[in-house]
Amino acid sequence: MIDLRQNQSQRIAQKTLRLLENQNWLIDGRIAFYVLPLAQRVILIFDPLALRRPEMVVHQTFVHRLSTALGGCRVVPTNSRGLYLQVAYTRPVLAKLETQPLDLSQQPGALHVPIGQTQRVPLWLPITEMDSVLIGGTRRMGKTNLLHTWILSLLHGGETLLVLWDGKDGTEFGRYAARENTLAVDDLGEGLRDLNSEISRRKELFRAESVNALPAYNRKTRAKLLPLALIVDEAALIPDELQETLSRLIAVGGAYGIHPVIATQRPDAKAVQGMLKANLATRIALPVPSHHDSQVILGRSGAEKLSKAKGRLLLVWNARLIEAQAYLAPGEATSQLPDTTSLLTGRELRLVQTAIKEDGWFRVRDIAHRARESRDWVNDIAKRWERMGYLTSVRRNEKGHPKGRKLTTALLGAAGLGGSADMADQADLVFIETSTTERKLNE
Known about the structure:
Blueprint (H helix, E strand, L loop, with lengths): L3 H20 L9 E5 L3 E6 L13 H10 L5 E4 L4 E6 L23 E6 L4 E5 H4 L2 E4 L6 H15 L3 E5 L16 E3 L3 H22 L4 H7 L7 E5 L7 H13 L5 E7 L4 H9 L4 E4 L5 H8 L13 E6 L2 E6 L4 H6 L10 H12 L3 E2 L1 H8 L3 H14 L6 E2 L5 E5 L2 H6 L6 H22 L1
Parallel strand pairs: 7-11, 7-12, 8-9, 8-10, 10-11
Antiparallel strand pairs: 1-2, 2-4, 3-4, 5-6, 12-13, 13-14, 15-17, 16-17
Helix pairs in contact: 5-7, 7-8, 11-12, 12-13
């Protein structure tokens, strides 16, 4: 009989050993840890004398990496009477992808940025491991919000220098100008010149120490150099004369600890051609209209099939395609609340705010439950708002099953939200999808 528990224990032990080897923590000739299989979990018992940095095996960074390597299995560390990791055999139940506010207390390490909530675990990745990043997606699908969560996380970590350019005269990134270790530039050319000067300076420092990369330099010297992230909000706005300079920076910057993050809402070959030639290492796609756009960003199709929910994304990582829901940056969360005069009662306004959190869907049962209101009252409101043009009629899927109503710009205006373009765009997308479905049903 095959002992499945033994096979699972071996798999966990092999993954753990591989991570230790990658970190160069193993001391040759010693057994790093012992494996104790139990009914629901395996316990890894580490020998502190067999590891160069024994305290790191119970650190949240290593725990997070091991959990990710095991596909989301829960890993619980303890060092009260030794160094132990308790690892569950099974993965957690898949969770529904929902927008959640950014929680910086969950940041695994100072260099980690949030990708989002996957169906198994929150996903954070070090900016240094991603190296250089391309982020693409249709307008108003959450690209800039994702960049804000990354900036806030790196500022919270306090171990990264930031150069920011939004192409909008500081409208987006100007708010960070006064923050420590941050340079928000209006002139991208000036920012690139500063970065190239920093590359030249670091090149001389590396040459003096006979090293060829930032981690090696920091290990060898007392004067530590911080990694540096260049975050560009819109590739299509980059002047043509700067394309070559930026491409060179992407190609050589990683060795000197400079990590470009290039975002675009126009994921066509022309807008990102130079950056693609320079081989941006990590690709993230938010919803796009066609498989061609997905191919430009990810090198494969898939992003065109994403839910048209703001912040939904696909990431190519370790040869795997990962779907996640980006976290909501604090500034973005407050911008969804009304800031002008509302024509609705406070009770009605709560229904609108609840529906916005549901990506604009007004499903009576869900809204009543989340707003803690009577279903009959919410149903009466829904019918009245539909007659007033505040809600669309009930949308149906391909099988004719009801999907719910959708908020309209008229209702958003009545709620004091000024007819949010985000919600209007999403309502248009849903209307197009539903019209196509209805046409097919009629045929």
